[in-house]
Design a protein that fits this description.
202 residues; alpha/beta; 7 helices; 5 strands; 47% helix; globular
């Protein structure tokens, strides 16, 4: 058998393998979305994230699909005795989904895996590390992030903005401004710089 024929067969085999793998992954992802979104989850989202009320029905449907997929697939690691529960999973999924509202992927930022969190009562022990460190305050069901400048921020929005290539040209100060706006449930004013919530009204 000629070398060119063997190469052709090899390439076809690789392509077939990739296609089959993608189809199996798609089927698996669809399985996560065939169940109704739990009403208890939506109640918590409405109570904890005022931004959710700004979404129209189409946006809410997309948002819930993203949240559902992230809760099902995202690997999360609790450190220093932190037990990962549905409130932690829901918080991370919501904040990732708000930042990625205009991204087509239902499973964004998958390169960051697993997501590691520390209990907030360990903050004094683990602060000033010069890196992105996530904390969970179980008393008020809130995420906190210490960024690379050792600033303690309420919510994890800054981290997802930082790793999103769409915002790579924005300054540290602008990312902080957007993160703080999201944390305070306000829609940023500069819509042209912030396409994430471009269809929402303040």
């Amino acid at each position: 058998m000629e070398t060119s024929t063997l190469v052709g067969i090899g390439i076809c085999s690789v392509i077939s393998f990739v296609i089959i793998k993608l189809l199996l992954a798609l089927k698996k992802d669809t399985r996560f979305l065939k169940y109704d979104f739990p009403s208890g989850w939506e109640n918590k989202i409405e109570q904890r994230y005022a931004l959710y009320s700004h979404l129209d029905q189409k946006q809410k449907s997309l948002f819930k699909r993203k949240v559902q997929m992230l809760i099902a697939k995202r690997k999360i690691q609790g450190l220093e005795g932190l037990t990962i529960n549905i409130d932690i999973r829901l918080a991370l999924a919501c904040e990732i989904s708000f930042v990625s509202m205009t991204k087509k992927s239902l499973y964004p930022y998958k390169k960051i895996s697993p997501i590691a969190l520390l209990p907030f009562d360990k903050y004094e022990e683990f602060k000033n590390r010069g890196s992105h460190t996530l904390f969970w305050d179980s008393k008020d069901n809130t995420l906190y992030l210490e960024n690379e400048s050792n600033q303690l921020l309420k919510s994890s929005y800054y981290l997802w903005l930082k790793v999103d290539s769409r915002f790579s040209k924005l300054s540290h100060e602008r990312l902080l401004e957007i993160s703080n706006s999201l944390s305070s449930s306000k829609v940023p004013d500069e819509q042209d710089l912030f396409p994430i919530l471009e269809n929402l009204n303040a």
